[in-house]
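Record type: monomer structure entry
Structure origin: computed from sequence
Chain ID: A
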Amino acid sequence: MNLEPADSDETRCARGGGPPDFTTRSSAPAIWQTTAFDVQSLDQLDAIAAGREKGYLYTRDGNPNHDAFAADVAALEGAEAGVVCASGMGAFTACLLALVGQGDHIVASRVLYGRTVQLLNHLQAAFGVRVTFADAARPEEFARAVTGATRLAIVESISNPLMEVADLPVLAAAMGAVPLVVDNTFATPCLLKPLEHGARLVFHSASKYLNGHGDVMLGVAVGESATIRRVKGMASLFGLNSNPFECWLASRGLRTLPLRMRQVSQTALDVARALQRHPAVQRVYYPGLDDHSSREIAGRLLPRGAGGMLAFELAGGRPAVNALFQALGEIPFSPTLADARTTVSYPAGTSHKFMTASERQACGIGDGLVRLSVGLEATADLQQELSRGLG
């Protein structure tokens, strides 16, 4: 018996899954979980590739979920365009690939996320890119480091893990025509918009506050359209792209970002003040505290709050930290941050473990330093749990 192709089980299964036609609009964004997009003709292929027609070809090069999330973050940051990558490190790498070549020079803050430092050191060793590390609290050091080969400067808006706030307007002025690239992960655009203060590119580990629920690995960079086109090209070429579902989850998390940042900023300030009073705590690092080295800058650049991250020092070093983590119970030790729940981490053994002991010491990261990522729990509960854990 001869069956028409459309009537065979094999053909039906292979070509199934398409939704029926309908006229109503989905009230929530759709997920475009596809590797590629079908093209009707070679003329359409050329038109899409040339940008004359809106469309997509291959998800590594672009996808509606990528563009939806990137556009939302760009709008929040006041940028012209954005690009999504597989992680925050992927976004930073794409920026470097777009702006820096062999023999070029980078000025970098001495205090950065440990893997950022590791990447910059790798560029020096393997690709002949020179890097000068300077004190972001001393903009004159950044200015002195600039040479004719300097292609960018990199700082964190709020540093990891000592919460130092970069004086972005002063740093941008010190760099002159050299683009200032800012990691805005800790502050988010709800608390600080670096482009308004002279930055040229902003990137985030979107796994953190932008998503906010601890279930996404994603990065995003935003800036001028021309620069982002170059960054996006490098992200595609080097396979740094994200997948649609991660972008969809991050878009969902973004809807509550202002509410979450307002809450964690207030809770973190209350918790920081309580920790200052605890006898087991030597020092607390939070920009909202009067004794923090960045208090004046935070007052100017972070009027809506200083975020949900803080750190504190224990006199007993690593053993005291280990005892605290085991005593906390409901507050887990987790090597990440900005989840809906509160977590603690140990910079010397996680985020900055790839630095040498002397490098960590030079950055003020001691063996007794604890990083606390404040979540959405009740403030009184967190204060009680921390006090009980500290003994």
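Annotation 1: The CA atoms of residues 111 and 254 lie 28 Å apart.
Annotation 2: The mean pLDDT is 94.
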